[in-house]
Amino acid sequence: MSKADYQEIITEYKEQVRVLKEQVNELTVACKAKDSALKRALQKLEYTTDDLDKLQEETNEPDEKL
Question: Is the model's pTM score more than 0.85?
């Protein structure tokens, strides 16, 4: 193989590496967004569970007073 052939292969590999780096960056951003959404959903679930527990406690209090 000539030097020109090697240069062409190297150029092609560099382009592939560039494309793969872009894809990694896109996936990283998407993953961070998904993690943030999951954290918000979990926090909302925790707040809802706390509210439900408080409501159940308040509902049980009148029964205990009787």
Answer: no
pLDDT value of residue 38: 97
What b-and-e string marks burial along 29-65, b requiring 16 or more CB atoms within 10 Å of the CB? Answer: eeeeeeeeeeeeeeeeeeeeeeeeeeeeeeeeeeeee
Provide the 3-class DSSP secondary structure of residue 66. Answer: coil
Beta strands in the chain, from DSSP E residues, in sequence order: none
Please tell me the distance from the alpha carbon of residue 51 to that of residue 45, in angstroms, as a whole number: 10
DSSP 30: H
Question: What's the rounded Cα separation, in Å, for the pair 14 and 33?
Answer: 29
For residue 35, the number of C-alpha atoms closer than 13 Å in the C-beta half-sphere is 6
Spatial separation of the C-alpha atoms in residues 26 and 19, rounded to whole Å: 11
